[in-house]
Design goal:
- This protein is of the alpha/beta class.
- The protein has one domain (about 1-170): P-loop containing nucleotide triphosphate hydrolases (Rossmann fold).
- The chain is built from 7 helices and 5 strands; from the N terminus they run E-H-E-H-H-E-H-E-H-H-E-H.
- It has helices spanning about 15-25, 35-40, 50-70, 85-95, 105-110, 115-120, 150-170, and strands spanning about 1-5, 30-35, 75, 95-100, 145.
- It has a 5-stranded parallel sheet with strand order 2-3-1-4-5, with helices on both faces.
- It is globular, with a radius of gyration of 15 Å.
- The two termini are about 10 Å apart.
Length: about 170
């Protein structure tokens, strides 16, 4: 199974994925976190163009397939701003749960812990999703987590409850 966390930069995807990973491992499940920033660091020359983002999503999806074959739950945490890329990942992976980590742009700009939104709004960062590049929200995600209104622990509990229900159904 793959849990695909998507949302804007700073929405809480990686934090949420790490919390879910820790809880699943406490429950005896084997997991692997594929964080977008970490995966990108392993892919020199991969930028933020539409084509490069598609390539990154495809690489992560291929890795998720390998993990699923080994009965490892993959937690993919990446912006993946384009629906077509997420749909292609779903088709490639099969057992795919899209988790939309939703947070309003205004809240992200206000938080801006790393100063990325400030720099993007000043034109210092090209292809910044939500500012100079689009983000296409999922149309039918398996789960939506509202991180602007929900504390991180509660958001993680929502995802974990959802995943555990899914695992029981899946056998």
């Amino acid at each position: 199974m793959t849990l695909w966390f998507t949302g804007l930069s700073g929405a809480g995807k990686s934090t949420l994925a790490r919390s879910v990973q820790a809880e699943l491992e406490k429950r005896g499940r084997t997991t692997m976190l594929l964080d977008g920033d970490e995966v990108r660091a392993l892919s020199p020359g991969l930028g933020y163009s539409r084509e490069d983002r598609a390539a990154q999503a495809a690489r992560v999806a291929a890795r998720c397939v390998d993990l699923a074959r080994s009965e490892i739950i993959a937690l993919a945490s990446l912006i993946s701003p384009y629906r077509a890329d997420r749909d292609a990942a779903r088709a490639t992976i099969g057992s795919f749960m899209e988790i939309y980590v939703r947070c309003p742009l205004s809240a992200l700009i206000q938080r801006d812990a790393r100063g990325l939104y400030r720099r993007a709004l000043a034109g210092e960062i090209e292809h910044f999703t939500g500012i100079s590049d689009p983000y296409e929200p999922p149309l039918h995600p398996e789960l939506i987590v509202e991180t602007s209104a929900t504390p991180p622990e509660q958001s993680a509990a929502e995802v974990i409850a959802f995943v555990l229900r899914s695992l029981d159904i899946a056998g």
